[in-house]
Write a structure and sequence with these properties.
By secondary structure, the protein is α+β, with helices and mostly antiparallel strands. The protein has helices at residues 5-33, 50-60, 79-83, 85-93, 162-188; strands at 99-103, 108-111, 122-130, 140-151, 154-159. It has a domain at 80-188: Alpha-D-Glucose-1,6-Bisphosphate, Chain A, domain 4, CATH 3.30.530. Helix 4 packs across helix 5. The longest helix has 29 residues, at 5-33.
Length: 189
């Protein structure tokens, strides 16, 4: 059996060349049509202006709608974080907890693990999600977790009962009402 190296190289080069051309054609056909080959959804051209991208995302994914979608009734970009009484009341009520993450546009505050000095093996973690700008008890959702550590590398996590979360929510609502009353008194002067 005779082995022809030149013929073997020519056939493999032809196969590799065919594979590259086919891959290129498939990819360019998806790009020309602006269709994601994985999801099949239309790909929007990338907007280089970050403010325009943020405005488009906010328009397409409203989280807190106070009025209609028209510009007259739409909330300003800073309205949620500066005038939302629930947001300020949460920060005021839980100011002893270390903040881990806050997201104004997403409407969530996540606090880091906290333990009292007399019991360092037991820690709690609270997150508050804002569902509406209105001062109502169903406008926020509080989730609380508890971590108990026997040793530094042996811990167990669990969700705290709803009674604890409701007591945190009640303290936030009471604080928000107090802030609202104080602001109303200032406005009357």
């Amino acid at each position: 059996m005779c082995y022809n190296k030149a013929l073997y190289m020519k056939n493999n080069f032809f196969s590799l060349k065919t594979l590259i051309i086919a891959s290129f054609l498939i990819l360019t056909s998806c790009i020309k049509e602006n269709i994601d080959p994985v999801t099949g959804k239309k790909i929007e051209p990338w907007e280089p202006n970050s403010d325009a991208r943020a405005r488009k995302y906010a328009d397409e994914n409203p989280i807190f709608i106070i009025g209609g979608k028209d510009k007259k009734n739409a909330p300003s970009e800073t309205e949620f974080n500066t005038s939302n009484i629930l947001w300020r009341a949460t920060l005021k009520s839980l100011d002893f907890l270390p903040l881990q993450n806050t997201d104004y546009s997403g409407g969530i505050i996540v606090y880091d693990w906290y333990s009292q000095t007399n019991n360092p093996g037991e820690q709690i973690k609270i997150s508050v999600q804002f569902l509406s700008n209105e001062l109502r008890s169903d406008s926020i959702k509080v989730t609380a977790h508890k971590k108990i550590c026997e040793t530094a590398d042996r811990c167990s996590n669990s969700t705290l009962d709803q009674n604890f979360a409701n007591s945190v929510k009640d303290s936030i609502i009471i604080s928000a009402r107090t802030i609202k009353i104080e602001e109303a008194k200032k406005d009357k002067k």
